Amino acid sequence: MGKGRGQWQFLSVGVFLQLVTVLRLWRYASALGSMSSIAISYGENGPVFCGLSSDDSHLVNCYGSNSAILYGIPAHFPFYGLTAGDGFVCGLLMKSNQPYCWGSSSYIQMGVPQPITKGAEYSEISAGDYHLCGLRKYGTELQGNNFSLVDCWGYNMTASYVFNGQVTSISAGSGFNCGLFSVNSTVFCWGDQTSSRVITLAPKQLRFQKISAGGYHVCGILQGGSSRVFCWGRSLDLEEEISMEYSSQGNVDFPPRDPMIWIVGGKFHACAIKAFDHSVICWGFMMKPSTPAPSNVRVLEIAAGNYFTCGILAEKSLMPVCWGHGFPSSLPIAVSPGVCNSTPCPPGSYEVSPNGDNAPCNLPGSRICLSCSSPCSNEMYEIVKCSLKSDRKCSYNCSGCLSTQCLSNCSNLVNEKKGGENDRFWALQVPIIVAEIILAVFMVIVVSTTAVFYVRYKLRNCQCSGGNLRAEKLKSSGIKSSHEDVTVGSDLDDLKIRRARMFTYEELKLATCGFKDESQVGKGSFSCVFKGVLKDGTVVAVKRALMSSSNDNKPKNSKEFRTELDLLSRLNHAHLLNLLGYCEEGGERLLVYEFMAHGSLHQHLHGKDRALKQQLDWVRRVTIAVQAARGIEYLHGYACPPVIHRDIKSSNILIDEEHNARVADFGLSLLGPAESGSPLAELPAGTLGYLDPEYYRLHYLTTKSDVYSFGVLLLEILSGRKVIDMLYEEANIVEWAVPLIKSGDFSRILDPELNQPRDLEALKRIANVACKCVRMRGKDRPSMDKVTTALERALAQLMGSPCIDQPILPTEVVLGSSRLHKKSSQRSSNRSSSDVDVVEPEDQRIEFRAPSWITFPSVTSSQRWKSSVSDADIEGKNIEARNVGLVGSGRGDGLRCLEEEIAPASPHENLFLQHNF
Ligand SMILES: Nc1ncnc2c1ncn2[C@@H]1O[C@H](COP(=O)(O)OP(=O)(O)OP(=O)(O)O)[C@@H](O)[C@H]1O
């Protein structure tokens, strides 16, 4: 990110050439933005603060915890200035005007970034999270012709960018860059804006003195008298959104309105130096706990890390101080607030001398020059002029105050003057304000009570009719409303179990040969599943809740059992597993489902029988994906109230006799919020690897959590690998697949067991859909209906349809399924449960499950580790260490992404992670 104050114009000029360089650079002094004499690197290996030494050597000095940066410091290279990103630091070499980087980033290698453009020299460099950009110096042939060239290196950015017009400064954010044109001072941005929207939001009409990119936003200081800050992007212009979503993790402050002279951007925050008194102020999202920015102290220079900021105080010393979250508040290295320069400071700048004993430059006659603050704004007047010895100082002109900032700064005077008037004003206003508050509270109570009653009324009478349009849509997509014949106001309990038949325990015992082991076809966390044949020949699957060890003989998780019963009996879709009936006798609780002859998708993809996997060719796999998507779309869009499945995974996608997919297991489902925007504050539940990180961290449950899990499922279908697999360098499928897809290397994720189709485009589409589904923020993910449409198109393309823009409807026509509410179980072959090709309950246990309050009694954690060890065939010790590392360091699962995208885990959360995984 562009973090730091650019004062590298103060160049050392020991030799004539350097002097020439300095003089040329002075022309653009005010435009040197993101490079600075200090820079902060951040990321999973820990933050590091680097600065140019407080002598005139221009050598780098760093402090922090990333050893790759500390040990990689180029001890003998003098730099003009520094910039830093996720795990790396780069400096602009004085000798060659080229960047030189070091650290632990896999995107920015140590040394001069490759490819080097021969003869290229840079006037400024700026680092984003995973990339570095350099602005070519003026005077190149292209720029001489009123073009500018920016070279970038790193993730998704390696290219040379040509801009029509002279660019004076650049600043890099997370996956994007922005620049300022010199002619009209307008801003432009380019790169990947998926997570920030900075490119589309860039204000074309505004003119800036300076810009600075943060993680997902850009802030700039406006030209003109106001010198105010203007921010855009995902985090700083959308304070409300942030404050709603992250209010439990930190505070969100609004951008100040004071005139500013300098600005830097962190991941979700920004800090600036005020023109008025050179004190620092920060705003945006502040993690809890955060130390406050130093107040009423002059600051010479600032640089931002992801959740913290460091600055060099003018008065104290040259030791940097830091504030915010996640870094020590004072650092034991002295750094330079600029670069020492042996020539006198040019007009418009002043010499820095923090205090006599602590002169920043060793050589006699050598000094640091900093540019003076901008001229005082309209409401201010100059109290100290800009001179060699001092910066310009401004004070508010209290007689002409227009802004609140001015008013508050002049408050003492104003108060004295207006004291009498104010007293009268408040004497009148206070009773009115109190009355208004009381009225507002009353209105809120009335509205919320009405809303509660209304929602309850709707739920009781929910018929999901939704008018003719909806009924027609349901019909056309193979859905039969389960409430067609329900009279309004009928008893809710009757409604819930209306369609499910009640079985006796004896009946089911007989059907499953006394629940003997041979009849068992699967085992879940809450239940065992048996194959059974009813008296009339219907083949069924009987799900028997696990019994607790206590004497009262109550089945475990009876709440889950009843939830599933309620839900399933009300839902009816060709791609949902139908509930046929239930039994509730004594302590026994059993559910009777249609029997799925071909077991689960998990067994096909990860079972020991390779033939089973190869049977699932690309068309069949995509068909299964489309069908599962339709089932989930029905749950989200047509079930009333909407249902969030919460445990979408391959072992819950069952395959019937005709190889059609059915979404099963509503044991973890919840009735969704009536309004999709209101999240359910439930404890997270689900299966690790598929679990939506946003839901997990923030307990923010919407239908988009299912979309995330479905995205993981898509990656699993495409790659044929398990969602958590220690045999891969990236154990988590999302961490592994998404970078490959994004870098255009998508064919590397395709299942090697299958031959690649001639036209890869369809699978590429699906991979892209999957990437969108697993985005960190639910809001950025597509809804299930969009996912379904995209998959249908991809399927049509895969099958060679010329008309891929038409979604395929209805299911049965294209996918060859003749099933529509007919009891396929009745037609199921009487395959005995010893048909072990699809029955590998052990194999399913190689999964990492979610936290302890949703642990599943059938499998102890030690069993899970054991099975993962044998599965991965890795030495026990190693796997344990890696598993701990996976969670403790936040590496390798979707959580890591969230940690970096939204916020680091709190100590409490870290503790929780370590305990539960
Ligand atoms: N209707 C069915 N027909 C055939 N096999 C089934 C049926 N329902 C479940 N199974 C088999 O039984 C296994 C266990 O199913 P169950 O729903 O109890 O647990 P799960 O979803 O695999 O795991 P968990 O309950 O831990 O989420 C399934 O993976 C599947 O192989």
Automatic annotation (TrEMBL):
CDD domains: STKc_IRAK. The keyword Membrane applies. It comes from the Eukaryota. Residues 515-795 form the Protein kinase domain. It is a single-pass type I membrane protein. Keywords: ATP-binding, Cell membrane, Developmental protein, Disulfide bond, Endosome, Glycoprotein, Kinase, Membrane, Nucleotide-binding, Receptor, Repeat, Serine/threonine-protein kinase, Signal, Transferase, Transmembrane, Transmembrane helix. The keyword Iron does not apply. Residues 344-394 form the TNFR-Cys domain. Its EC number is 2.7.11.1. Signal peptide: none annotated. Residues 819-841 are annotated as: Disordered. It catalyses: L-seryl-[protein] + ATP = O-phospho-L-seryl-[protein] + ADP + H(+); L-threonyl-[protein] + ATP = O-phospho-L-threonyl-[protein] + ADP + H(+). Disulfide bonds join C376-C394. GO terms for biological process: plant epidermal cell differentiation; plant organ development; post-embryonic development; post-embryonic plant morphogenesis; reproductive structure development. It is found in: Cell membrane; Endosome, Multivesicular body membrane. This is non-specific serine/threonine protein kinase. It comes from Trapa natans (Water chestnut). The lineage of its organism: Eukaryota, Viridiplantae, Streptophyta, Embryophyta, Tracheophyta.
